[in-house]
Amino acid sequence: MKIAVMGFGTVGSGVYRVLEENKELIAKKAGEEISIKYVLDLREFPGQPVEKVLTHDIQDILNDDEVGAVVEVMGGTGAAYTFAKAALEAGKHVATSNKALIAAKGAELMEIAKAHQVSLLFEASVGGGIPILRPLNVCLTADRILEIMGILNGTTNYILTEMTQKQTAFDVVLKQAQQLGYAEADPTADIEGHDACRKIAILSTLAYGKTAHFEEIPTEGITSITQKDIAYSKEMDCSIKLVGVSRSLPEGISAMVYPMILPNVHPLSGVSGAFNAIFVKGNMLGDTMYYGSGAGSLPTASAVVSDIVDIVRHKNEHIPMDWDTTQKLDILPLDEVPVRAMVRIAAQNQTEAEKEALEIFSGGRIMDLAEADDEFAVLTGEETEASLAEKIAALGQKYEIRNRIRMEAKA
Ligand code: HSE
After folding, report:
1. Ligand 1 site: residues with CB under 6 angstroms?
2. Of 42, 151, 271, 297, which residue is most buried, by most CB within 10 angstroms?
3. Residues recognised as catalytic
4. What is the pLDDT of residues 95-107, one digit of tens each?
5. What is the domain extent for residue 249?
6. Which pTM was predicted?
7. Whose CA is nearest to atom 8 of ligand 1?
8. DSSP string over 68-108
9. 90: domain CATH number?
10. Are residues 286 and 176 in the same domain?
11. Count of structural domains within the chain
C-alpha cells in the first residue's frame, strides 16, 4: 500500500523512520509492503531524504488513486480536520495521533469513514506508544468497564516526578520536558490538563460507546501544586499524580482530570518520568494496567504505524468500533461526584481551627507537618464535590485555605 504522511514534525518524522527501519518486518506483518508516496508539509527539507516525496499540496494526495491511506500527524483541529475529512471522503483510510482532532471531531469523522467504508484509527492519540484503544475495542469486549484511571500526560508526569524526587523548580523541569520533545507546542495544554482531558474523553467514548464531549469534563492542571503539597503526600506514603478518571458510578458516568494524591501501593503511583499508564477495571476481568512511553517521536510513531498495518490487513473494509456516534455520553455534573480531599489551612489559632475543621469535616482527620508549623491539613471523608466546596468556602471565611487536592478514596 502507498500512503501519505501529513505533517513532518516529531511524530511524522518518527513514522518515516519506523517505516524505513522496520520495512521488511512491517511488510511481513501487513502482508504487503507499505511505502510513503507523499509527505505533506509547508516547510522545505533541503538535502534530507524526505525531499524526494515532499509535497505542499494536499490535492496531490487526494487525487492520487494509488494512495490508500493517509497518516495525519499535523496536530490541531484546523487543517488537520479539513485534510482528514477530505481524505476519508476521497475513500482513503486515515490513521492519526491527533487527540484534539478525535476529541472534537471524532464522531463526525467516524461517520464519514463508515459511509465511505474506510477506517479511522487513532491508537496513538491516547498513551502515545501504549496499546490501549485496541485493547478496549478488541480485547475487553466481554466486560462492562467500571473504571479507567490514567496518567495520560508525559510532560506533567515528568514535572511532578522531578519536583518530587529532586525538588527541581516547576519552570526548569517544564523546559527540560520541552527539550525532550514531550510537551505540546503550547505547553499550557499539558500543565493545565487540557491534553489529558481530550485523552480521557476518547477513553470514555470507547469504554461507554457514546461520544464524550471533552468540554463537559471538569479539568484541573498542576500549576497549583507546591513542594509543601508534595511533602504532605510523602508523609502519607502517597504521591501526587495528574490523572484522568472515568467511572461508572450508580449515579452515572463521571469523568474528570485533576491532580490526585495516590497511595504508593496503587499501581499508578510508581509510574514516573514521562511514562504514561492506564489502569482499567472491568466487571469480569478485574484490574488491568497498560504502561509505556506516552509521548515522543518513535513510541508515538510505532502506534501510528500499527494502525496502518491494521488498515492494510483490512484494506477493503471499515474497522468497526463500539461507538454510537449519534449518542452523547452523559457526564455526571461535578457537584454530584463523590470525592475525598486534603485541605491545607493556615490559622493564627491553630488549635481552634483544627477543632473547627473537624466539626465541619466530621469523619476527617488532621495532619501536621514538622516543616510547616504555620498550617495544618485536614484529610476529609468522602462526600460530594458540592458539599466539599461548601465546607471549604465556610472555613475560608475565617482561615486561609492554602490548597485542596483530591485524594484517592483509599488513601
Ligand atoms: N504533550 C503530550 C504529553 C504528548 O506530554 O504527554 C503526547 O500526547
Report:
1. 128, 153-155, 182-184, 190, 195, 294-295
2. 151
3. 199
4. 999 999 999 999 9
5. 133-293
6. 0.97
7. 295
8. EEEEE-S-SSSHHHHHHHHHHHTT-EEEE--HHHHHHHHHH
9. 3.40.50.720
10. yes
11. 3
